[in-house]
Structures are given as C-alpha cells and as structure tokens.
Design brief:
Helix content is 73%, strand content 0%. It is mainly alpha-helical and 309 residues long. The radius of gyration is 23 Å and the shape is elongated. 36% of the residues are buried.
C-alpha cells in the first residue's frame, strides 16, 4: 500500500498539473499521442532533482497507465516504457516501494511466461530480462512473493530462439538463485538449461554452465542434477577451453556445497568428471582440475574430522 512520504507537496501538485495529460495520453487510441506522452514522461523521470517527489509521482500517478504500455502495439513505445522504469530505479538511493516493483515484475512475467511469447520483439524480450536483473540488484524482495511464476517464466525465457535472451536469462536465473529459495520450482528451467548446454554458440554453453551450480544449490530438497549430468560430462570435453573450465568450476561448487544426501547420490559421478580432466590437452585445465580436487579433498577431510568429534 502506498504510504505518504516526506515530500514537497507543492512540487508534486505543480508537476501533476503539467503531467496529468501526458499520463492519460500514454494509453490513448492515437499512437502519436501515446508517443508524445511517453517522451514527456521519460524527460521528467530522467531528471535527478527532487528524487523523492518524482518517485512518488511515478508510484501514485504514472505506474498504472505505464504498465499498460508494456502491451502497446508499437515496439518503440514498449521500449520507452522500459526505459522510464529504468529511470525510476535510478532515482532511488535505498528505499524502494516493494509493491510498485512487484507490479512491474508481474507485468514482465506476463510478457514472457508462455510460448509463443506475448512479447514478439527479440530486442524487447532481452530488455525485459535486463530489467528483471536490474530490479533484483536493487531490491530482490520484489520477487519473494511470486517465486513459482518467476521460475516458470525463466524456464520459458531459456527456450527463446534469440541467443542473447538465452544467455541473459541464464545469468539472471543464477543471480536470483543465489538470493532467494527458488530452486524447488526450477525443474523446467533446468531442463531448458540442459538443452542449452548443447547450443552451437560457445557463449550460450558458457553462460549455461556458469548458471547451473547456483540453480541446483538453491534447491534444498533433493536436486535436479540428474537432468544435466550427462551434458555436464560432455561439456567437460567441450572444444572451448572456457566452457571446460566453467564446467569444472561448476562441478567443484556442487561437490563443495551439496547436502550429504546429494553427495551420497552423485559424488562419484562428479569426482570422475574432475579426474578425467587431469588428462586434458590444456595444461591450465589439468592444473585447475588438480587444484579443485585438492580443495574438495580438504573440505571432505574437515567434515570427517568434525563428524568424529
């Protein structure tokens, strides 16, 4: 619920007199009026002075109509709406209106949570994923009420035919998994990641393997490792040395942080991936494998000593 902040009421009243027509115009039938209104709002929210007042105007007056613009038929208008939200985020120092951000997140999820996507533009879909990333950087609590829908959307975004969306969706999935207990709902996302591990583009395989450990470790009850295990083995033999290194680091992260239950089930399979890489063609990867095995051995020794105390 929107609370009354300590703001300059006269500034807000004066600005609303100037902006109300533009706020109304952004959902008008006339595309030119929508475009003009959005341009005026973008200019207003770009300005850094009176940030508390501008934030209040966004929350109390502009938000409702602006969210409707995410469905505008004109791609440029949808792009401008995203940029206005980014301007809004930049106005903040610390304190965010969680409810405002949750409404924005819900609107984005609705654009990306089914195939074919409601958002038809590849570039806009990429911009939406980047906006989700910015929101989690600024105020991760915006996601805490809707993890199941968010996980479902991530699973769909990872299936996007546009490689940049696949890559950024994997990065976002990893970051959100480090901060919130979303892992229980990420089964579809892990299946999508498993498919992306076989992608022709090296950068997609690398972003995918970099994301897999945080996502698997976010699940506290069991694991989805069995879905990706064969492809992890394959990536440890990938033609790209960066992908091979990323795979070994991911495997080591799992071995270092998995629950005892998961280790009992998968430790031998994961250790074997590291051991096989001791004979990699790259000396750097051979050394990395040895280093990681040493670290895991020391961690296991420490755990055994603590268990015997």
């Amino acid at each position: 619920m929107l609370t009354e902040p300590n703001i300059d009421r006269s500034f807000v009243e004066d600005q609303i007199k100037l902006l109300q027509r533009d706020i109304n115009c952004i959902i008008d039938q006339d595309r030119n009026l929508r475009k003009q209104g959005l341009a005026k709002l973008q200019d207003f929210f770009k300005v850094k002075s009176n940030p508390s007042e501008r934030i209040y105007i966004f929350d109390a007056y502009a938000l409702k109509n602006l969210l409707r613009v995410f469905e505008d038929q004109v791609e440029r208008n949808r792009e401008t709406a995203i940029n206005i939200v980014l301007n809004y985020l930049d106005l903040h120092n610390q304190h965010f209106n969680t409810e405002t951000l949750r409404l924005i997140v819900d609107t984005i999820i609705n654009r990306l949570n089914q195939l074919p996507f409601a958002e038809t533009s590849e570039e806009i879909r990429l911009a939406l994923i980047k906006l989700l990333h910015q929101i989690q950087v600024k105020h991760v609590e915006a996601y805490s009420n809707n993890l199941q829908r968010l996980a479902h959307m991530i699973g769909k975004a990872l299936q996007d035919n546009f490689p940049e969306v696949k890559k950024d969706a994997a990065i976002f999935a990893a970051e959100i998994s480090k901060k919130l207990p979303i892992g229980e709902y990420m089964g579809e996302a892990v299946k999508s990641l498993s498919t992306n591990m076989q992608h022709a583009h090296t950068k997609i395989r690398k972003a995918t393997v970099d994301s897999i450990a945080p996502i698997l470790l976010s699940r506290t009850n069991g694991t989805f490792l069995e879905i990706v295990l064969n492809n992890l083995r394959n990536l440890s033999l990938d033609k790209s040395s960066d992908v091979r290194k990323g795979t070994l680091i991911a495997v080591a992260e799992l071995l270092m942080h998995f629950s005892i239950q998961n280790l009992n089930a998968f430790e031998n399979n994961l250790i074997l991936i590291l051991m096989n890489s001791l004979s990699d063609d790259s000396k750097e990867i051979q050394n990395l494998s040895m280093q990681l095995l040493d670290q895991i051995g020391m961690k296991r020794q420490k755990l055994d000593e603590e268990a015997n105390l």
